[in-house]
Amino acid sequence: MEFVHSSNISQHFIDVGNTFLAFGLILLATFTFLSNLAILIIILTFRQFRKVSYYFYASLSFADCMVGLFVMMPAAIEKLMQNWIYPLFLCPILVAADILLCSASIASMCLISLDRYGNIKHSFKYRYIMTSQRALLVILLSWLLVCLIAVFPVAFNWINRDREIFPEFHNSKFTCLFKPSSEYVIFASLITFFLPLFIIISVYVTIFRKTCYVSKTRNKRLSIQLEEIRLKKQIEMHLKSQLSSCPNKQTTMQNNLVVPHSTFLNIKEEKIKLSKLKLRKKKHEILNIRAMKTLGIVLGVFSICWIPFFIINILQSLTNEVPLVVVEISTWFGWANSSANPIIYSLFMREMRRTVLHILRIKVRNNIPESSFVITSHGSSYSRFTKSQLESRKSVIERSDN
Predict the structure, then answer these.
(1) Which region among 16-25, 32-41, 345-354 has the lowest average model confidence (pLDDT)?
(2) pTM of the entire predicted model
(3) Could you give phi then psi for residue 374, rounded to 5 degrees?
(4) For the chain, what percent of residues have pLDDT higher than 90?
(5) In a 3-state reduction of DSSP, which class is residue 369?
(6) Which of 234, 280, 341, 367 has the highest local Cβ count within 10 Å?
(7) Number of neighbouring beta carbons within 10 Å of residue 22
């Protein structure tokens, strides 16, 4: 009796843990859908995002948004109910949607990396080559390719004609299990993941090397300019010290020394130039470090999320001995990449970050009357002042002009 009682208690704790886990997965799916939908609305609404490069980000946001709605949410609800609660015909449809949308998300990330490579490597020619119509055509072709590779074999049961994709009775419950042949798994994994992964890594390594080369060239140029200014200052200070130490021979030294006029620069102007050059050098170093961090985070998150899933998926198709829990965990790790993408790109894309902060400021200041504010725009950035602040700024500018 005690053994039965303890087993009931442990089963109760397991059920409670599964319930909390399911609610957490539902929250994750909701966040994935809403965050990617917000990024998609921002790209389609604001004028500064009407560029060719952002078409690929819109494709990525749309794919990730659909992953949250049609892939993660049904799986999380099934986890909560601990059983297959949908009609039987939805099983192959949800499997096809899973493969299509996840593959489209990976393909969109590959297109983003290639777009960055074109903008950095061939910035002048790329603007004329990649027009908006061609970008839309590339996105459409990538989705069609994903459909051919991922969806049609599942939808028409071309993978294994002897096996239907329907919920199976597993561990006292029905589960929508997808068990394709090992040939299809290896082929689809190579085309939809490992080839894009190789392209993304190659492109980002090339971008990293290009960024380091440009940064070193700029730093060398700035170092030469700094050295020239230091030498001019030393020459000027040396000449002034000689003239001040010999006041009686000041006229004679001025007549005998032949120094270019550019040497006698104002010390204040030299200090300003020196500080500006140091600031530019520091700014380039910060941008280089930021670019390295961005590339590292994008590659790291993408690899951590998807590599375990595809390796376990291939092993499962070959051996059929991988535990179902391991397959489920690796699957959710892969889907979590769709949750991480809006965070990464909204934090590390300058225009996106400014727009999000601008929207949040408007939401926070909604309690203050809108008539007391004046919004001014400078390029892609925004400034928000009260009328008194704006008048004081205008008065300061008018005084400086007078």
Answers:
(1) 345-354
(2) 0.74
(3) -130, 125
(4) 28
(5) coil
(6) 341
(7) 18
